[in-house]
Amino acid sequence: xxxxxxxxxxxxxxxxxxxxxxxxxxxxxxxxxxxxxxxxxxxxxxxxxxxxxxxxxxxxxxxxxxxxxxxxxxxxxxxxxxxxxxxxxxxxxxxxxxxxxxxxxxxxxxxxxxxxxxxxxxxxxxxxxxxxxxxxxxxxxxxxxxxxxxxxxxxxxxxxxxxxxxxxxxxx
Length: 172
Hints:
This protein is 45% helix and 13% strand.
């Protein structure tokens, strides 16, 4: 199977390699800060891969008092599935500020924006997503609910805490 030269076999082999590489990275380069819960109920901040921005937000009492959660989004599949489930279990969540730097290759932020704009196609693929594996396991019902519940403020690339704070204040 690893040496299968057809298109499906190549994608399967690459997916296995990428999964293995991801597991190795988790062990070799563990990043402990995954999310921080706040005291608010309507807004979440998604920092993509910007761990320094996430730490700044977590240390900002005025921001943490206004948001439900500050977290990273590293993948265009499992990460978005987790975000969908979080939103469903927190029905007052209605805004996500999407900021920070994209994960190279995965483009999780772009995939989230594509999901909100276009939904999913066959086999759970996010329509218009550019990452290598933009396939969700969430049900169509959960995805539809998420898309109707949440509005995303696109600040991809923004790592300035003051600008993120201003966006939050304009949202709340």
